[in-house]
Specification:
Elements: E1 4-6, E2 12-15, H1 16-22, H2 27-39, E3 47-53, E4 59-66, H3 67-77, H4 82-96, H5 104-129, H6 140-146, H7 151-161, H8 177-181, E5 185-189, E6 195-199, H9 201-213
Helix pairs in contact: 1-2, 3-4, 6-7
Domain Antirepressor protein C-terminal: 116-210
Keywords: DNA-binding
Organism: Neptunomonas japonica JAMM 1380
Length: 217
């Protein structure tokens, strides 16, 4: 059984049970040795995990020992088994190593598989990137509220001023391309798949300056 663990910080550890098997020693003796080394400050206090429940219903705790400290523990218990520990670490680390193509045909197949995965993921990525980002973009309603008016009134004023919405769109609203190119707004999709015009901070400033120049604010 693979007793090597990779935690959230990608630090490899080996359980005290695995160490006891390597050095052919009782697990409780290995844990005692670890406790003594920790008390002397020779190794760091290892994390713990619950082991496999025994037939009598008792679950024995196991230490999760880092690579460097595992060598110290084995040297303390049975120095003659150090080589076995080295071999075991190499075996376990190779199991986690990424697969490297050994020939040209394998490399081509790996590249094809990765390309296929990217192709399948592309629609999902595009959808997520196009979702509404309300923490950086604002609706007409949000901007209108800052000026003490409704979104309907603000949009009517913007229609009169021009340079914001496309007149070719009969149902709904869409920015003209120059408004988007100037960084004043973006056309996004809501979670329900509907198009929505959202204004950037620069767009809000542009609207405010236009309203001021027209004497609205």
């Amino acid at each position: 059984m693979n007793e090597m663990i990779m935690n959230s910080k990608s630090a490899l550890t080996m359980s005290s049970l695995e160490i006891s098997r390597l050095v052919e020693s009782r697990h409780d003796n290995v844990k005692i040795a670890i406790d003594r080394l920790v008390a002397r400050g020779v190794i760091h206090q290892p994390a713990m995990q619950d082991g496999i429940k025994a037939s009598n219903g008792v679950t024995t705790s196991e230490y999760l020992v880092k690579k460097r400290d595992s060598y110290v523990v084995v040297a303390q218990l049975s120095p003659e088994f150090t080589a076995r520990l080295v071999d075991r670490w190499q075996e376990l680390e190779e199991q986690l190593a990424p697969q490297v193509p050994t020939n040209f045909a394998t490399a081509l197949q790996l590249a094809a598989d990765q390309a296929k995965q990217l192709e399948l993921a592309a629609p999902k990525v595009a959808f997520v990137e196009n979702l509404v980002e309300r923490h950086t973009l604002m609706t007409a309603t949000q901007i209108a509220q800052k000026h003490g008016m409704s979104a309907v009134k603000l949009n009517r004023l913007l229609d009169e001023l021009g340079g914001v919405y496309s007149k070719s769109v009969k149902r709904g609203r869409a920015f003209i391309q120059s408004f988007i190119d100037n960084g004043y707004g973006e056309l996004k999709q809501t979670e329900h798949g509907h198009s929505q015009c959202l204004f950037s901070t620069a767009g809000e400033v542009w609207i405010h300056s236009k309203l001021v120049s027209e004497g609205v604010c």
